Automatic annotation (TrEMBL):
Keywords: Membrane, Transmembrane, Transmembrane helix
One annotated Gene Ontology cellular component of this protein: plasma membrane
EC numbers: 2.7.7.65
Entry-linked NCBIfam families: GGDEF (TIGR00254)
Biased composition (Basic and acidic residues): 1-10
Protein name: diguanylate cyclase
Signal peptide: none
Biological source species: Noviherbaspirillum galbum
Pfam families per the UniProt record, alphabetical: GGDEF
Residue ranges of the TM segments: 30-50, 56-79, 91-110, 116-131, 138-158, 170-187
Reactions that this protein is recorded to catalyse: 2 GTP = 3',3'-c-di-GMP + 2 diphosphate
GO molecular function term, any single one: diguanylate cyclase activity
């Protein structure tokens, strides 16, 4: 009765995508303060070196480090208090980059000697935006940053009568204004890659789901149900819990096809699959083995319970009304049931359930037969 017993590669039934989603959800709950924490830690360290070399006053160092700590703590608290969920971008990358860049510009304004640190650290701050922000947002931030920096240079230049230092400041501003567009272009590439990655992930998940389903009925396919049986076997051996297999066959399905056409036959297969999968427990698993044959795996169930389940399904299917589709009103099922014997192979279990089904057919169909375990 079963189409064949050819061994197929077993497929893991664990749901990696579910695991990934849980991991992703966990990650998205974690405070994402890398832009402030990483940039400000490194920047503070560089300020400390400036201070050690005598280029930075202790008060400015203390004020800058204090503000950096305040910002990191503030963003951390905002994440902990879930304030980030109120932002369109819950990673709060924009406010973090703006805060970091403003702090660095103020320090550069107060202590011109620290200016060599400005361009590299602004670029590092923007590199965080590359992964999380749109190109439009990056351009806006870059423009805002360049304007503020130019404003600082002009104010200071006016105070110092536009001397040689002013020219050096302008030079540095030009370097930054030429570097930022490169950063934005790179950001655009990263955005494209991210889009490609998420489209690929979506497709993979879709194909993964499709690969375990039967096209016509949407039930699990033969490969998946065999893999589930193998899992149930391992669990039964390890925990000594019973499980049963039912092989279900629609009686005289060839006649149904011959008398009503294949499309009507397909409708019966689909309708039966829908009804049967709604009538089983969540822990049970129904799959289409092929043609008009289905496998029902009943976990944590002994033979007596399985026969009861099978009988209920048989009666249920028998009372379905197919008058609109078929020349006859009802269909009937023959079902063979077998309980797993500890230590046996899945092929042997399937073969015993198949023998029980053969018996049901021999005894006149529309019945449940079983083999004692
Ligand atoms: N409509 C339709 N028919 C299919 C499909 N797959 C297989 N079949 C047909 O299902 C029929 C299965 O018939 P069998 O199981 O061999 O025999 P039966 O008529 O059911 O007789 P018993 O099993 O002895 O009661 C064959 O005629 C197949 O061509 C399908 O996807 N759609």
């Amino acid at each position: 009765m079963l189409l064949d017993n050819a061994r197929e590669p077993l497929r893991s039934t664990s749901r990696p995508e579910a695991l990934n989603r849980r991991r992703h959800a966990k990650l998205s709950r974690a405070p994402q303060i890398a832009p402030v924490s990483v940039v400000l830690s490194l920047y503070s360290l560089s300020l400390f070196i400036f201070h050690q070399l005598g280029y930075l006053a202790t008060t400015t160092l203390a004020a800058a480090c204090g503000t950096a700590i305040f910002l990191v703590a503030g963003f951390y608290a905002a994440f902990r208090l879930t304030l980030h969920t109120r932002f369109t971008d819950p990673t709060m990358t924009s406010p973090q980059i703006i805060a970091v860049v403003l702090l660095m510009l103020v320090v550069a304004y107060l202590e011109r000697a620290t200016q060599p640190a400005l361009v590299p650290f602004i670029l590092i701050a923007f590199s965080f935006g590359m992964f999380r922000q749109s190109t439009r947002m990056l351009i806006l931030h870059a423009a805002g940053c360049l304007l503020c920096y130019l404003g600082i240079i002009l104010v200071r230049g006016q105070k110092e009568q536009y001397g040689a230092a002013f020219e050096a400041d302008l030079l540095q501003w030009f370097v930054l204004s030429l570097s930022l567009p490169g950063m934005i272009l790179l950001g655009k590439q990263v955005q494209n890659l991210r889009q490609l990655l998420s489209a690929t992930r979506y497709q993979l998940e879709h194909y993964e789901e499709k690969s375990v389903r039967d096209d016509l009925t949407g039930l699990y396919n033969r490969r998946h149900i065999k893999s589930e049986l193998e899992q149930a076997r391992l669990q039964a051996n390890a925990e000594n819990v019973p499980f049963c297999l039912c092989v279900i066959d629609i009686d005289r399905f060839k006649e149904i096809n011959d008398n009503n056409g294949h499309l009507a036959g397909d409708t019966i297969l689909k309708e039966f699959s829908k009804v049967a999968s709604n009538s089983i427990r969540d822990s049970d698993m129904l799959g289409r083995y092929g043609g008009d044959e289905f496998l029902l795996l009943l976990k944590n169930t002994d033979l007596k319970g399985a026969v009861m389940h099978a009988e209920r399904l048989r009666v249920y299917a028998h009372f379905l009304d197919f008058q609109k589709v078929l020349t006859q009103k009802h269909i009937s099922l023959s079902i063979g049931v077998a309980q797993y014997r500890p230590g046996e192979k899945i092929e042997d279990l399937m073969s015993r359930a198949d023998s029980a089904l053969y018996q049901a057919k021999q005894l006149g169909r529309n019945r449940v037969e079983w083999l004692e375990s």
